[in-house]
Amino acid sequence: MPLSSSDSPKCKILVDAMGGDFAPQHEVLGALSALNENKSFHLILVGDDEKIKAIAKENNLSLEGVEIIHSDEVITMHDSPTTALKTKQKSSLVIGAKLVASGGADAFVSAGNTGAVAAAGTLLIGRLPGVERPTIGTYIPNLKGITTVFDVGAFVDSKPQHLVGYAKLANVYVREMFGIQNPTIGLLSVGEENEKGNKVTKETFDLLKNSNLNFYGNIEGRDILLGTVNIVICDGFVGNILLKFGESFMKIMKPLLKKTADANFFDKIKIALSRNAIRKTFKVFDPNEYGGIPLLGVKAITIIGHGSSSALGIKNMVLKAKDMHDKKLIAKLAKEMNKQ
Amino acid sequence: MPLSSSDSPKCKILVDAMGGDFAPQHEVLGALSALNENKSFHLILVGDDEKIKAIAKENNLSLEGVEIIHSDEVITMHDSPTTALKTKQKSSLVIGAKLVASGGADAFVSAGNTGAVAAAGTLLIGRLPGVERPTIGTYIPNLKGITTVFDVGAFVDSKPQHLVGYAKLANVYVREMFGIQNPTIGLLSVGEENEKGNKVTKETFDLLKNSNLNFYGNIEGRDILLGTVNIVICDGFVGNILLKFGESFMKIMKPLLKKTADANFFDKIKIALSRNAIRKTFKVFDPNEYGGIPLLGVKAITIIGHGSSSALGIKNMVLKAKDMHDKKLIAKLAKEMNKQ
After folding, report:
1. Taking CB atoms and an 8 Å limit, are A278 and B274 in contact across chains?
2. What percent of chain A stands above pLDDT 70?
3. Are B37 and B25 in contact, with CB atoms under 8 Å apart?
4. Are B45 and B99 within one domain?
5. A256 vs chain B: nearest CA distance in angstroms?
6. How far apart are CA A26 and CA A315, in angstroms?
7. Chosen from A232, A256, A264, A283 to mutate, greatest number of chain B CBs within 10 A
8. What is the ipTM of this complex?
9. CB-based contacts of A230: which residues, under 8 Å, 6+ apart?
10. Structural domain count, chain A
């Protein structure tokens, strides 16, 4: 007799409580807040047992039904990813990823060292069959909605077949998670014309053109914010530089406006008056709104958060993981990558 | 008897009057405005003779002392650079570059097709001895002043020795033009640590470390706007994408603010009130302020303008060319590149 859906085991989401610049505070509060909003998953927190319990107590939050797995070590933002995976076996990240790998959880959520989370996903959780290189994507707001960019730093020196792999994974992801049936895919280059680009993008262009994907062609740097395509494909070297450049734009906005304000009394008043409206405008660029960024191509749902994630950011990551699980994302990615 | 400085021939600046989206209008008005401000150079305009004269007449401007060289053809923004140089021999760009190459002018100023101007500089004006690849730089405002970025699209697939060449050229340029005695040079990469980067940047890191340049080390995307170094070195593929991404940030600012304004009446009033202050803040990002971007490594001063250059932009380009000539930039670049 098949199990009815009410009998099927609950989705298990594991949160690395020690990842992130404000761990475990933001991690515990965010994860419990997600659980409070959506009770239909099982929450596992991996981290310092005492600290986790203290945070819950201080905030009058119940840990009933929450599984806590104690860990002694922490992989920091300064650790070398692959070295740390080997030397810090008792870290929340390694313990967590291994539990996911063994089937003890369905999803892995961490705002820790991005490189280390990506390495843990690739090496410990493992790649899906047909995936040579997993990829990290990011969301960049455009005038119409959201542009997704793959890859933003999982790997550098990508070969043409890797870039095509990123496109296939991203295609399934954007279709399932954004409900866009046949997302447009653009290849990031230095000119729109087919023959523009470097050696790798020129070869990739031909592969994408002959694929079943909805390939738009080459796009330029400006097309990301203009929203010319749904998915932008690039090597992780370029994607990572772009991502950090874009983030810094938001960071200098405030001091730049302050400079104008300090130079002129009337400008000071005007800028002070409009501060909230300006803040509201730039809220679309806040990474906490998007629930982390996905690592695609590994055997379990893996979400990486910004190091500075707020509790809201962590909550959104956990809810995103639940959504991915409900949409059977991993099975759909596996099916796509197994096709030849 | 040596010539006294008053006897030395005047600096000759050649302006491609047909380059740019608003040519020849902005080109003629901008060049004449520069001449009006600084009479100590000889102005050569290459372009449609009738149109140039008509614009001067309409604006009650004198063409006295201005040399006009007629050209029939125009290389457009859509022309393939190297093909256009061969097939459009009567274009203002080819005629102008050839005149500069023959010694008929000291500086070449064009807001035309960037690729075609770079190709004309490289192939017609020619490279300085010791220069394998010329480079185009750009200015990006940072919190403290200006970050220069080389290369932003002259060439892609740069090898480590090319990137070191860009650094040497940029070092002389920033030292002479910005008066920074020993400018700091950062290598754009995906992490600050020495071992981070792709294959090309890792090799370049070692070459720069062992050079006489003031090498800061690797920098990340965020360091450009933070102003961590004076000079950022990268391959033209990355630089071009960054440049266009950055420009588009400024372009979406207005519609993004409008979106906030349209959603709420009070925000509309606040944003309307602060519009001028916001505009003032972002003025630092206006390319017209900077007088074009230099092509370094060729035998004559070559300045490339944004296609949308205003008359003020063209004027600033001409004055910048005069400044480069006064500072004997080409001789200093030649000396640096001839050292081994």
Report:
1. yes
2. 96
3. no
4. yes
5. 6
6. 9
7. A256
8. 0.90
9. A147, A148, A174, A178, A180, A183, A184, A185
10. 2
